[in-house]
Specification:
This protein is of the alpha+beta class. The protein contains 47 helices and 40 strands. A nine-stranded mixed β-sheet has the order 14-33-32-31-15-27-30-29-28, with helices on both faces. Strands 17-16-26-25-24-23-22-21-20 form a nine-stranded antiparallel β-sheet, sandwiched between helices. A six-stranded antiparallel β-sheet has the order 3-2-4-13-5-11. The two termini are 75 Å apart. Residues 639-650 have a biased composition (Gly residues).
């Protein structure tokens, strides 16, 4: 078959400097040579790439289907190929102009297709294996030990392990001269702690290894030299391999495209993993100068024939490329083709260059337009083959990935400071005791001759300094119990259990479709899940599923359809039946006009006449119908048109039987939809049983619109080189497409100029309202403009993506004059895009406003409910995306992040403008004053300083929990702001008081920079004007409080995930990069709610109490030993032996607190933590602060230690049969009293008792008595006589004094704590106390209001209730009201608010939960308390006082309790 010839206009390309051309291996022709002769006789050299070849000639001997001679193609694929080549030419021009000149010493690499030649080159490249794990067998020990000993606690125990200058406890304990204990316990404790931590670290890293293995063992297809294809894992991909990639597969490495199976020599890729954008990008194979690697276009097949793949492997191609770098947008390289087949091609044969042995050779440039980067996905292209250029760590996506940071949990940071303070206290106590010992020896010891203290031996040193120093070491070992090493064992175990059992196997976080469980990859951060203050979320694949569906339309200012209608779920309905389902009015109008006499003319004309199309509405009165010439349209069946006839009594309205005008406008609307698009038609991969073909294209919006049009009878049926065929309700019509002006972000719209069968030329335009509304004719009736704006607002409030439709008719002469200028601009290389945009804007002016489309970008299940719940939990949510701003704001509205889209502050500046910084500064000041004004108006206060004089200072003075504004920022503006410290600070101040922030068009680095910006701001605000140590401590406290969380699903989110305190990866469709670099992984965004509100809350609650209790029990024990020193001359004598001291921590007190930290919970029903999101707010939490730690963990231990020592000491009796006056008896009594005290403490603070916890708590205390009896016998059994134990327990347990003393100790210690806890519950109740009381009385999941049940059902916390069942059942017992019980619901069609029982209804019909009421300012809910027992009768308050809370401050009341909180839509409800 003879190749078709293509004659296209030449580009006007400026000359390129010869040195730049030679850098790319090209040799330019003299200017005069390029002007001489025709295109057919022109001599092609490599230099023509810069001028002619780069503009339009496709190469490889495959000639595209030519558009009409001399015209720009209107076929989408041909146009894509043209654009790809134009982009290549533009890059070359930039390089020629010196904008990207290569450095003289630039490093390069040479890649050969011939593997033998590649191996002979001798250069080794990176493996394609990618590793995100932290350890391997060799590096584990040094890295692990470094991580462990970077913590103060582990360093503390390390600095006690060897004899030497810094002797350690484990080593010192073996020095019997100074040690009061044996060395076995200390050494074993340190080793055990490190072993447990090591097991946990290994377990977590094994998970990372599994994720790496899953990615590295993914299968790709390598082309062998004989043309066969082998499936290999990604790890076996090497530089120089030729790889075949099919549709919907990821590229395993950075490839240079050699062949595309798609017509017109291009391919489409999805780059969501790189930049977050969902639209498809165009790439093209390298220009092979006519060498054909595949069949003719009409013979293409998938999979390809082996002979064509063998031709690829026989290609003698050598690529010289720049060395690996991070640039995602630029690539510099040249491909040298030396092949005999060049002599048979018109381009290669005329090159005039020969290589070795006279083989023709040509060199062509390679840019990013020929590169396919790892992580991107091939779409709608069949398959491609590509040459591997970069692998593994040298791929662009990996070079842009930051190194996995070492993240430390906030409690670890908290413990670092507290342990340092405790160690300082220990140092002071040891120094005090050492000096006191020396003074006692000098003053009192000498009086006791039997001590022989005047004889200086080991342990009694003559040198005062030596005596003090060595005695100091004795007390250092004795008081080492002040820092509980058992805490760190328990912490590791508890965190491991929380992460790898509770989180990993939470059924509520298991995806029902993929069956994926949640994954904890870094359990060190469990407590931080309960302290999140900011969430930075990606959009595509994280909030949305990227599935577009048409929901509503508006025609001439009237909305049709319903946002609840799911037309795609009724695929059996097509044509008029589907249109009837969508909206009856549209059906009647379409059916009526289809039967009318004007139907054929209406279709062949491409739409209505100019005057009908210009009419401002689709329901004209009779006079208007007559003037428009449509009143007399008769149905072809002979039935009247149905228009109103004379006579007042029998007159019928036009809309009752279908508006004739609406029918005409409907044809205008759907014709625009079907013509103004860039879709291609492909066979349905699922088979013809459903649909014979499907639409594919770069815009999912276009696919949704054209799919919906097809279902409703308006079908885009065929596309040829220059025409489009439609099927309009059964009648086929073909339009000649004359020009296509593609959508760009600057233009904001797409336009198509087409000629209808009757010769009418129309401009069809579709785009954003901001752009298209500016193009409608100036005399458009104000009524139509207002109605359309109302439609846009109505759709936007529902979170729908809107596009405005406009059409106009143009004359033939006007078009011909414009088209001539358009073709000249398209042939120009200088400012081509600017010229085309200007001409497009010119022809688009004066559009007739037709209507609006409303598309739903389908959110993931439960996203709006999840974001609402997070906002109610006082978490600030940001949405950061690479998508366009209009789309981002629409999605923010859909997911309830933005409440008032019309009031969003939009920060957009031109980053290329010289006044960009000044413009951004002015806008930020304006917005800051606006926020200050909102706060003053709402709260009725006046800020000082004034917002006019100092807007930043005024907004900073606003309380942090006030967040009412909403902000949108685009990427270019963010570039300007982030580049200036003052602007960055202003943006942070503004954003901190916004309830929702939307960032669009952002790059991966900007996502990370935003997280850093807000972290830095919060630190600055916490420090304030403090200086020195006070400033450091304020910043330290802030670092422990609100945490930053990032969540995303793509590789473009990795930097943001790693920068944030907590990174959450979504296990979506865009690869595993986000998951592999995250701390936690979940399958859907809504699972973030249980992860934070349940697991985060519980982890924080349990670990905080574990820390305080662990210090409390150890400090109590240590102070018992310390108090005894006042009565033994500060000699360092211990009251108990080392074994008993060891079992105190390891056996008797370890299991209760371990089970407490794993099982305890503030409420029995954990779903209540989701129902009452306000419980999450930790800003006013007293759970674990420095003050509460020293009060509960230290001071309480000091007091209880005093009780457990002094009462036994002063109660020792010398009378009676059993004498317990010796030191060892005192030690046993104090030990039992101490053990009972600390056991009662953990029992007192426990809120959720299980039989296991109860049994082990009782056993941990009861077992001390058999221990006291059996342990001495065991010592005797092994032949060891221990005077501290033998016979002592028998006397102690037989003494009545012992039982009385320990009873008194328990009464005092437990009584003190019980009284304190009672006072807290009665007068200072926490939210969890109140809920616990309500749970015991009524349960927490009963009487769910309608909005609460809906929210919880969306989150999967409860079952969705059918309309026939009640929402007011007892969910904890699985019960619901019987069908005969009717809940108090508002009437369907209006009616006044009512109250039934305990449930009040607002004017919107929302019911209120009886357990949590929000009062409007000024309302009163009286305390009803009898005898100190609080009742719940006050819930039956006047319903007029109850209201749904906004995000403003309000009082949340639970009967007799009041606490100040920032209100929310679901305040504890």
């Amino acid at each position: 078959m003879a190749p078709r010839q293509l004659t296209l206009p030449r580009l006007q390309v400026p000359e390129v400097p010869s040195e730049v051309a030679m850098a790319f291996g090209v040799d330019q022709e003299p200017p005069e040579a390029s002007e001489a002769g025709s295109a057919a006789s022109r001599r092609y050299s490599p230099g023509t790439i810069i001028r002619d070849a780069t503009s339009w000639i496709t190469g490889r001997g495959r000639t595209p289907r030519a558009p009409p001679k001399g015209r720009v193609s209107v076929n989408p694929i041909v146009r894509a190929a043209t654009d790809a080549k134009m982009h290549t030419a533009q890059e070359l021009q930039e390089q020629a102009a010196g904008k990207e000149a290569a450095q003289a010493d630039e490093r390069t690499r040479v890649v050969y297709i011939d593997q033998a030649q590649q191996r002979e080159s001798g250069r080794a490249f990176e493996s394609n294996r990618v590793v995100t794990s932290k350890y391997n067998i060799i590096t584990f020990l040094p890295i692990f030990l470094f991580e462990m000993f970077s913590r103060v606690a582990y360093l503390y125990f390390l600095l006690q392990a060897r004899r030497g200058t810094f002797c350690l406890q484990a080593g010192l304990s073996w020095w019997s001269v100074i040690s009061p204990f044996s060395g076995y316990g200390s050494t074993a404790a340190l080793v055990f702690v490190l072993a447990v931590a090591a097991v946990k670290a290994i377990w977590e890293d094994v998970k990372r290894h599994h994720e790496d293995k899953r990615m590295n063992t993914s299968i790709t297809h390598r082309v062998n030299p004989d043309g066969s294809v082998s499936d290999i894992p990604w790890t076996e991909v090497e530089v120089g391999n030729v790889i075949m990639v099919h549709d919907d597969e990821l590229f395993p490495a950075d490839l240079m495209c050699l062949y595309s199976n798609l017509a017109e020599n291009v391919c489409f890729i999805k780059t969501t993993n790189l930049d977050g954008e969902t639209n498809l990008k165009i790439r093209k194979p390298v220009d092979l100068k006519g060498i054909q690697l595949g069949p003719e276009e009409h013979e293409k097949e998938t999979p390809p024939d082996a002979k064509y793949l063998q031709q690829t492997m026989e290609l003698q191609l050598t690529l010289t490329a720049e060395d690996a770098n991070k640039n995602l947008h630029k690539f510099r390289g040249k491909a040298q083709i030396s092949d005999q087949r060049l002599a048979d091609t018109p381009q290669g044969g005329s090159s005039g260059q020969n290589g070795a042995a006279g083989v023709p050779m040509v060199e062509v440039p390679v840019t990013m337009n020929e590169m396919l980067l790892r992580g991107c996905m091939l779409k709608n292209s069949g398959f491609i083959t590509g040459l591997v250029v970069y692998t593994g760590k040298e791929t662009r996506i990996q070079m842009n990935a930051a190194k996995t940071p070492l993240k430390v949990g906030s409690f670890d940071r908290f413990l670092n400071l507290q342990i340092a303070l405790v160690i300082a206290m220990q140092l002071a106590m040891c120094l005090f005791c050492a000096i006191a010992n020396y003074i006692w020896i000098q003053k009192e010891g000498s009086k006791h001759y039997y001590l022989a203290l005047n004889v200086y031996v080991e342990g009694n040193w003559e040198n005062p300094l030596a005596q003090i120093c060595l005695t100091f070491l004795t007390f250092w070992i004795l008081l080492s119990y002040l820092v509980p090493i058992s805490l760190f064992v328990t912490l590791e175990i508890v965190k491991f259990w929380q992460g790898f059992v509770f989180i990993n196997f939470d059924r509520d976080m298991r995806d029902p479709k993929t069956r994926e469980w949640a994954r904890c990859r870094n359990s060190n951060l469990n407590e931080d899940l309960g302290k999140i203050e900011y969430i930075f979320s990606d959009k595509t694949g994280t909030l949305t599923s990227n599935e577009m569906q048409l929901r509503q339309i508006a025609v001439k200012g009237v909305a049709y359809g319903s946002s609840e209608m799911r037309l795609e779920e009724h695929s059996e309905r097509t044509g008029l039946a589907a249109l009837r389902l969508f909206d009856q009015r549209l059906y009647k109008a379409a059916a009526k006009v289809q039967r009318s006499s004007s139907w054929s003319g209406l279709i062949t004309a491409g739409g209505s006449r100019r005057d009908v199309m210009a009419h401002p509405n689709s329901y004209p009165n009779l006079d208007s119908q007559g003037s428009l010439g449509i009143a007399d349209e008769a149905e072809q069946s002979g039935v009247g048109s149905g228009l109103a006839s004379g006579g007042s009594g029998g007159q019928r309205n036009d809309w009752e039987e279908g508006s004739t005008a609406l029918g005409h406008h409907l044809i205008d609307f759907w014709t625009n939809i079907c013509l103004c698009q860039s879709l291609i038609i492909e066979k349905n991969p699922e088979g013809p049983d459903t649909l014979p073909f499907v639409y594919q294209g770069p815009s999912p919006d276009e696919i949704a619109l054209v799919d919906a049009a097809r279902q409703m009878g308006f079908e885009f049926k065929q596309r040829t080189q220059s025409s489009i065929t439609l099927n309009m309700l059964g009648q086929e019509v073909t339009y000649e497409v004359l020009n296509v002006m593609e959508y760009t972000s600057d233009r904001g719209c797409m336009s198509v100029i087409a000629r209808s069968p009757d010769g009418t030329i129309r401009v069809f335009c579709k785009g954003s309202d901001a752009k298209v509304m500016m193009k409608v004719r100036e005399d458009t009736p104000e009524e139509l403009v207002e109605n359309t704006n109302a439609n846009l607002h109505f759709f936007a409030k529902q979170g729908l993506r809107t596009l405005v439709i406009g059409t106009k008719i143009i004359g033939d002469e006007e078009y011909q004059e414009w088209d001539q200028r358009y073709q000249e601009a398209a042939s120009s290389f200088v400012d081509r895009d600017e010229k085309l945009d200007a001409l497009g804007k010119e022809i688009e002016q004066g559009l007739e406003l037709i209507g609006v489309t409303a598309i739903e970008d389908k959110l993931q299940d439960g996203v709006p409910a999840a974001i609402q719940t997070l906002l109610d939990a006082s978490i600030r949510v940001w949405m950061i995306t690479g998508d366009k701003q209009e789309t981002a704001i629409n999605i923010a509205v859909s997911c309830a992040l933005v409440k008032n889209p019309d009031e969003v502050m939009v920060l957009n500046v031109d980053d290329k403008s010289e006044t960009a910084k000044a413009d951004a500064d002015a806008m930020l000041d304006k917005f800051l004053r606006q926020v200050a004004g909102m706060y003053q108006a709402e709260m009725g206060v006046k800020l000082q300083p004034s917002a006019e004089a100092a807007p930043v200072a005024a907004v900073v003075s606003i309380p942090a929990d006030w967040q009412q504004a909403e902000l949108a920022v685009d990427g270019p503006s963010l570039t300007v702001v982030l580049g200036d410290d003052d602007l960055r600070h202003k943006l942070a101040v503004l954003a901190a008081h916004c309830s929702g922030v939307v960032v669009s068009r952002s790059s991966p680095s900007q996502k990370a920079a935003i997280v850093k910006m807000m972290t830095k701001y919060e630190m600055w605000k916490a420090a304030g004007t403090r200086r020195g140590l006070s400033r450091w401590y304020a910043r330290h406290k802030r670092r422990l409080q609100g945490k930053m969380l990032s969540i995303g699903d793509g590789a473009n989110d990795v930097a943001m995930l790693q920068t944030a305190d907590v990174g959450i990866g979504i296990m979506g469709k865009e690869g595993r990069q986000a998951v592999n670099n995250s701390d936690y992984a979940i399958a859907q965004f809504r699972y973030l709610v249980p992860l934070l509100l349940v697991h985060g809350n519980l982890s924080y609650y349990r670990l905080a109490r574990l820390i305080k209790y662990s210090f409390y029990k150890n400090i109590t024990f240590a102070f018992v030993l310390f108090y005894y020193q006042f009565y033994n001359g500060f000699s360092g004598q211990a009251l108990v032996d080392s074994i008993t001291a060891a079992v105190f921590n390891v056996v008797f007190t370890s299991l209760p607190i371990l089970l407490f930290s794993i099982l305890d919970r503030p409420v029995k029903n954990l779903r209540a933590l989701i129902r009452y999101p306000k419980l999450y707010d930790k800003r006013n939490s007293r759970s674990l602060t420095t003050m509460s730690f020293w009060k509960t963990g230290v001071l309480l231990g000091v007091v209880h230690g005093a009780v457990c020592f002094f009462i036994p000491y002063y109660s020792l009796a010398t009378s009676g049969k059993h004498n317990v006056t010796d030191i060892y008896s005192l030690g046993k009594i104090a030990f039992v009293a101490l053990l009972g005290t600390v056991t009662l403490e953990v029992a007192l603070v426990a809120r959720y008792w299980t039989w296991l916890f109860g049994v082990l708590t009782v056993l941990s205390y009861v077992l001390v008595y058999p221990y006291l009896v059996i342990f001495p016998l065991a010592e005797l059994g092994v032949g060891f006589y221990d005077p501290t134990n033998i016979g002592v327990s028998d006397e102690v347990l037989a003494s009545a004094t012992f039982w009385l003393v320990i009873l008194v100790c328990y009464i005092i210690t437990f009584g003190m704590r019980f009284a304190e806890r009672t006072a807290d519950w009665a007068f200072r109740p926490q939210d969890s106390f109140i809920l616990s009381e309500k749970e015991r009385k009524d349960g927490l999941m009963q009487d769910l209001s309608a909005p609460t049940r809906k929210r919880l059902a969306a989150l999967g916390a409860v079952r969705a209730r059918s309309s026939s069942r009640s929402a007011f059942g007892d969910l904890e017992r699985g019960e619901e009201l019987s069908s005969g019980e009717v809940p108090p619901l508002r009437a369907q069609f209006g009616g006044s608010p009512q109250v039934s029982g305990e449930v009040a209804l607002d004017e919107g019909g929302d019911t209120f939960d009886s357990g949590a009421l929000e009062l409007t300012p000024g309302s009163q809910l009286q305390q009803r308390s009898v005898g100190g027992v609080r009742g719940w009768e006050g819930l039956a308050a006047d319903p007029r006082q109850l209201s749904v809370g906004s995000r403003s401050g309000s009082a949340v009341r639970f009967v007799s309790h009041v606490r100040s909180e920032s209100g929310s839509q679901y305040p504890l409800h």
